[in-house]
Predict the structure.
Amino acid sequence: MAGETDLATLLAGLDPVLDAKPFGYAVLPHGQGLPAGLVPFALVREAEGLTVIAELDALASAGIAVEGRWARITMTVHSGLDAVGMTAAMATALTARGISANVVAGYYHDHLFVPWPRRDDAVAALGALG
């Protein structure tokens, strides 16, 4: 099933949902496998190493150093990978409030990672788009 591509429909249906647990970003050197039991949200292979995004507690339990505390906000609308403008609209709304964001797109949904202390402000900004 293809995702929605109409920008007005996407923004009206964003319905951002805040995950209750904080997340962290970590980097593992090439060749180092994931610790047993660690279930990451996302993995990104880069020239410098493997970026791991996972719940903060899970990373800490695995003894992995993290960068900051991040809140995951999931847009529940099924956005098409070829949709135009949704990421820009979300970034513009967050920029207006001085909130940084990192986007991870899955097949069905877009997920934003924002600084943990700004999570409620971010949800409000995204909710206002609809």
User: Anything to note?
Assistant: DSSP finds four helices and seven strands in the chain. Helices lie at 7-12, 56-61, 86-95, 119-127.
